[in-house]
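Sample 1 of the test manifest.
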Amino acid sequence: MNLQNLLSDIEKVDGEIFDRLAHVSRRGLFSSLTKKTIAAAAPAIMASALTKAYGQSSGLPQNVKDVLNYALTLEYLEYRFYDTANNLSMIPNDYKMAFEVIRRHEQVHVRLLKNVLGADAIPEPKFDFSAKGTFTDTFSNFQTFAAIAQTFEDTGVRAYKGQAANLQNAPAILQVALQIHATEAAHAANVRYIRGQKGWITGGTAAMQGLPSVVNGSYAGEDNVTQAGVNLVTALAGDNRITPAMIMEAFDEPLDKNTVVGIVTPFFA
Amino acid sequence: MENITNRPETTTSESASSRRSFLRVAGAAAVTGGLLTACSHADDNYLIPSGSARAAGDTVKLPTGDVGILAFAYVLEQLEAAFYEMVLAKPYPNMSSADRQLWTDIRGHEIVHRELFKAALGGAVPTLTFNFSGIDFNDRAAVLIAAETLEKTGVGAYNGAGKYIKDGGYLTLAGKIVSVETRHHSILRELQYPKSDAFAGPTIVTSDTGLHLAYEPTYVLPIAQKFILETIDASALVSSLA
C-alpha cells in the first residue's frame, strides 16, 4: 500500500496540511484513540481527520483531491493485484489464507480513501500486471506473483518511514500511520518467508533477496550500517555473534517517493 | 523448568557516557559474549553473574521525555537480546539448522539494537539483570511462545510510544527498528501457526482497519517487569508524556 506518499504529496500542494491535522488531532482524536472501542473505527478516524482538516463543508481543494486520487490509484493497483490472484488456482492452498488477509487489508485502504473523497473518488483505472512485458506469467506462475508481492510489500514498508516525523504534531494520526506501517512489515516478512527468503532485508540489492535487478530500487540503501551517527560494524567488531549482514537487517531504511513511483509506474496500463 | 538468571554483559561499566567510551565498552562486552558462546555446553550456572548483579528490590528510575522513551526502548531491547542469548546458550533438543539460523539472526538484530541504544543513552540506564526462570528453554513450543510474546510487546510498545517522541530523528530511528521487530513477530507467528493468516490475522491486525498493535508504556512495563530482577520505575517518564 502506498498511503505513505499521501501526506508528503499533500504537503506539496498545501504546506499547512500538518498544522491542519494537528488541529484536528488536538480536538479529541488523541484521547479517543486510547480507548479500545475506538480501534474499530480507526480508518474512519483517519478518513475524517483528512476531511475535517479542510473544514466541515467537505471543501477539499482540487489539488488535494488530485493527490488523494493518486494515492487511491496506487491502492487500487495493489488491491486488484491481490484480488485477481485470489480467484486463481495458481496460489497453492497452503498460502491462500495469507494472501487473502493481505488482499483484505488493501481493500480497507481503498475504502479509506474513497471515504475521504466521496463522490470525487476516481473509478478504478486499468493496470498492466506484466509491467510492460517484464513479467509474462504474473497470474499463472506463483513464484512470479510472490516475487512482485514481496517487492510491493518491502517497498511499502520503506516508503512509509519518511512520513512519521511529519506527523509529530498530530499524535493520533501518527499512531495510526505507525500501525499501518507495522501491518506492511508483517505482510512483507510473510511473503518473503513464503518465497524461501529470510523475513528481513539483507543487503542493498534485489539479487540478495532472490529478485531480478529490475527492482534494485526497492532495496538500494538497505546496506546502511550507520545509525544515529554510530558505525555499528565498527562498534560491534569484537562480537563474533554479529555479522555485517545482521546490522543491515536490523534496520529498515526509508525510501524516497521518486523511487517508489518508479517501482510501481510500469504496472499502470 | 530452568532456574536461570541471565546477565550476559557483566563487564560493562554504567558510567560510560561518551561515544568513545561506548566503543571501548562494546568491545569488552563483545569479548565476554564470545567467551560465553564458546563454552555454551558448560553447566547451567555459567550465565549467573559473579557478584555485580543487582537484585530484586533495586530500582532503576527511567528518565523523562525523549531520553526516557529511548531508555524504555533500551530496557525492552536488553530484554529481547538477553532472551535470545539464552535460547542459543541453552538450545532445545534437536534444534534444526533452520531454527538455529533464525535464533542467531534475531539475536544478532536485538544485540545491535541494544548496543545502539546503549551508545545513544550513555549511562542513563544500567545493564539490567534478567530472570527467565518461567520459560522452559528445552521446549521449542515454549520458546516460540515466549519469543512471540516479547516481539509482540516490542512492536506494540514502539507503535504506542512513537507519538510521545519529540525529536524527529529519534522517531525515524524508532520507525527503522519497529518494522524489523514486526518482521520478527510475523515470522514467529508463522512458525507457531504455519501456512495460515496468523502473521497478520484478526488477533494481530484489526481486520476492518488494517491496523497493527499499539500499546501504551503503562501496558508494556508490567509485561517486561516479569523478566527483570530490578524494579523499573517509569512513573516520572509516564507523567512527563503528553
